[in-house]
Amino acid sequence: MTFPPPKAEAPAQRFEEASVAARDALERLIAAANEAGWGTEEISVAFLEAARFLTEANKKDPDPADDPAISDVPGKREQIGHGELFD
Fold this sequence. Notes:
The protein is mainly α. The chain contains 2 helices and no strands.
């Protein structure tokens, strides 16, 4: 899926462009989900929950690309749960 780049500089115009692009993308996603057997209401609610989750995650870590790779984290070979180990 492609997403159009912004054309405007002003925040209000960028917001409007983003809203239109997001709406178009969601309509395509909902149509694809409908074809796969999901109801419009259930998939719409699932998208809302996913958006809330991503918003919260972004508040906690706004730029995860700056985080160290898992292989760079100290203690990477320690036990992490029920006997699992990192590879």
